[in-house]
Amino acid sequence: MSAPDAPAQTPSVLLFDVSETLSDLSPLGDRFVDVGAPDHLTRTWLATLLLDGMALTAARAQAHFSQLAIGTLQSSLTGLALNRPVGEAIAHIMAGFDELGVHSDVPGGLPALAALGPRLVTLTNAEASVAERMFERAGLAGHFDRHLSTEDAGIWKPAPTAYAYAAGRCRARPAEMMLVAVHPWDINGAHLEGLRTAWINRTGATYPSYFNAPTVEATSLVHLAQLLGR
């Protein structure tokens, strides 16, 4: 998929997904290995967590990230030959969220994007406090106007209500906003609510044709700043 031309007007709000878009989740694999579980189980667990959260969203029920994370960990770890009790293993893995860092392009990309003039806001399906602490550790907290969680919206992304909630909190029209995400399902959901979108494709993946295409495709946040600054 070739990258579309950047929008002619810089959005007034850049709305960032957090998990995997800004945060690097790969260290969680080390936590699985620490407790005697295989590293590859990390991806299965995260996929199950997302699947169950979206199932609740499709049923118009609220999904609580921590509750889902712990519950799906319980299922994923049960029956394995761990080196500690399951409860202790879960606590060790969950503690990893408070040690996550950002992707290598984020420290350079955020200030470059902020310099273009938009407000920078995060919208996560997890607790907003997790994002706040991560950016404080990274020394990047000052670039953000606010951190939002869909837990306060009552429903996860990609439900339209989640993006509408963010627009309301930012006092901006959806058309004035741009979602920045690595997840095509997130891009598609924001598009349906009227936001412009930026797909961060760090891996050279192919965008799924069954989702609405992003407004712009970039290989990093630095690249996105270059595209929006044209």
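Second entry:
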Amino acid sequence: MLRRDALRLLTAGAAIPTLSPNLLALFRAAQAQTGSGYKLRTLNPEQNLLVTAMAELIIPATDTPGAKGARVNEFIDVILTEWATPSERQNFLDGLAGIDKESTDLFGKKFMDASPEQQTALLRSRDDDAMMHRVHTRPRHGNTVPNERDQQLVGTFWDVFKGITIHGYYTSEIGFSQELNLQIIPGAFHGCVPLPIEKKA
């Protein structure tokens, strides 16, 4: 399955984000903290498993690693710890608890105990509801992934979760270099390279 086919959980407005240089720098600073030996600071182990599973359903592994391989869960933990206000952090954690409650109501088991098909159906239902809400209300900054630093964690839980997952993936080395085939740090600028003779005319 192609990555673009797998991203059906994302609404049309939630395309790969174009980030301002400042926001990209902030996200890259958050990414620099993730990796081998990272210790969770906001998410507990159960919440971390839930975040990891949900993010991987949004951006699954295909020919390149998915959200799990890109350590999006750790990126989210950094954002919740260092960026979020206490109310934003609590809203996010309450949203995670809501996912488990909805799974229990629908399937009689928590999200992590549900089948992959049940998990996907639940998240698709969340995404459909969010899309219907956006159709009948003013869109959130024209996109589910706002570019402003102070808007990243504002909105419904699903929009916030999906947006920060996309940002976490596409500012990771895996997402940026392997998926988008871009360079995180551009090569050197050679401003005084002589033009070939045929170009001088």
